[in-house]
Design goal:
With 428 residues, the chain is an alpha/beta fold. Helices cover 32% and strands 24% of the residues. It contains twelve helices and 18 strands. The relative contact order is 0.18.
Length: 428
Amino acid sequence: MYSLPSFATLGAMHKYSIFSLARNAMGYHEDWTEAWRSPAPQPSYDVVIVGGGGHGLATAYYLAKEHGVTKVAVLEKGWLGGGNTGRNTTIIRSNYLWDESAALYEKSLQLYEGLSRDLNYNIMLSQRGVLNLAHTEHDLKEMSRRVHAIRLNGIDSDILSPAQVKAAVPIIDISPDARYPVLGASLQKRGGVARHDAVAWGFARAADSRGVDIIQNCEVTGIRRQGGRVEGVDTTRGFIAAKKVGVVVAGHASVLADMAGLRLPIESHPLQALVSEPIKPVIHTVVMSNTVHVYVSQSDKGELVIGAGIDAYTSYAQRGSFHIIEGQMGALIELFPIFSRLRMLRQWGGIVDVCPDASPIISKTPVEGLYFNCGWGTGGFKATPGSGWVFAHTVANDAPHPIAAPFALDRFTTGALIDEHGAAAVAH
């Protein structure tokens, strides 16, 4: 028989654990090797990438890896991943209707599937599947159309019955008298989530190892051009000359374009999300509802990650409005009554730049040597590696990659739009 330790023994053990923790914290966190260098900016580079989020870092990495362009600087006004990369809901999928979108997002998903190995950095990719719910007869018909189109592009997509939805997500309410009856769903099994910070850090470390200079706390204040050609950028750390400048600043693309004398067809809107207190695993996939406009997944820490649509007003503020939260909570609780007792921990907002057709711009500009990658709306995180891969090709070759060619600026004058507003209803 074992005897319980005395209170004195427990106290001594507790005291020892506190001092041990403090000693280890002080002693073992010294002289850590930085994951990437923090160099001073050089006077000039072959390429300057403005924006140190996932897309910008991916562009720099693929410039070095795929095209041998290593005299590259990534300029970030704050810290790496401090913008939309760190302010999203981490969903990854490629089940888009239009051929152009499907090609771009499927390339990105394929890169994601090998990214941890490629970067030698665990991005915590979890291909737990993405469910898109159907609530009306119209939803069912539209879902069937989308699934067949997606399959024609070689992308996995299945149709589920209400019973199959219930089997996949036991806590969902599929009763016929529910406010939002579940009549079926589409499923992309290869979809899922990844760790957003890890994606940025992995690309940063890998780009740095190939000679790219990553310069934080360096805000671009102007874009210099001589006649019809770019010369470089003015920054809070001085002028930096560059043969080519690629701008990848989600939410602020129109501001940077104005510095170069360009006007882009973009609006910026707040997009907010929130997380709950952590709970035991209860939902093992990503569930999205376009009709009622809410989506939810569960993080590895147990928090529910919840999002909805953009705020209608234009703003550069990283905050949202209460009525959006109220609406998405009402929809969430109708679908998952069990969540009504949960407490929310925190809420945040990002800034998304949206084009008229809800598709991105990946393009040369009328200014020689100046390129823009922007307008991703709410679909940016899932496109991160694919965006960087095609944009690096565009910058290195001064010509669009075939996957990126449909997303050029001139589509707004030719009328060859890629209408993801009409196709997807929501682009998360």
